[in-house]
Amino acid sequence: MRLSLLALLARRPAHGYELKQDLEQLLGAAYPQPNVGQIYVTLSRLEKSGLIAGEEVEQSSRPNKKIYHLTDAGREALRAWYEETADEPRVRDEFFMKLALAPQTGLADQIALINKQRRQYLNTMRDLSKLAAAEDRDNRVSQLLIEGAMLHLQADLDWLERCQEELEELE
After folding, report:
1. CB–CB of 28/139 below 8 Å?
2. What's residue 28's pLDDT?
3. CB-CB contact of 98 with 92 (8 Å)
4. Dist CA 129 CA 112 (whole Å)
5. How is residue 27 annotated by DSSP?
6. Is the model's pLDDT at 35 over the cut of 80?
7. Dihedral of CA 157/158/159/164: which sign?
8. How far, in Å, are 35, 37, 48, 90, 92 from residue 17 at the CA level?
9. pLDDT value at position 50?
10. What is the pTM of this model?
11. Could you give the CA distance from residue 54 to residue 18 in angstroms, rounded to a whole number?
């Protein structure tokens, strides 16, 4: 969340609740909604590390609010983030570890594990399809997020099929 908040502050100064709304509007319902408390904790840490600076603004009928803006160090951190590539494909997969260790423990059947995981992926895909239909069609960022999640799920489903085929050949 740190770098996402820095990116939003690169556009314009804002307070925590505005940043929460900006993230929700940009990413839509498919992305886990940020907790406003988490946002303020992150803003405090960013300020302590010198990546942003905050300024108290008086409000007549409400408590004061703190408006944050990006510092030069924050802009550099953001530039560095954009230069980095995303992590490599995951190789530490908790489900695969369960699948690999199941025969050694005798506590779970590998095919049953695959079937349970497949049902989970299919349920998630169904939920994402409903979300895509309900989401604002004009929010391309949200639609792309949903599409990407569904493509990853499809790849995971294909991989489960491959695992099952391999395990059934071993029997």
Report:
1. yes
2. 83
3. no
4. 26
5. H
6. yes
7. positive
8. 10, 9, 19, 33, 35
9. 97
10. 0.72
11. 14
Helix/strand/coil for 80: helix
CA torsion, ordered 110, 111, 112, 116, to nearest 10 deg = 100
DSSP structure string for 83-140: HSPPPPPP---HHHHHHHHHHHHTSS-HHHHHHHHHHHHHHHHHHHHHHHHHS-TT-H
Mean pLDDT throughout 114-132? 95
Q: Quick one: CA torsion of 60, 6, 11, 85, rounded to 10 degrees? A: -170
> DSSP labels for 38-77?
HHHHHHHHHHHTTSEEEEEE--SSS--EEEEEE-HHHHHH
Q: Cα separations (Å) of 147 from 32, 67, 108, 121, 170?
A: 15, 35, 33, 14, 35
Instruction: Please check the confidence at residue 74 and state whether its pLDDT lies above 90.
Output: yes
Structure token pair of residue 122? 């299919």
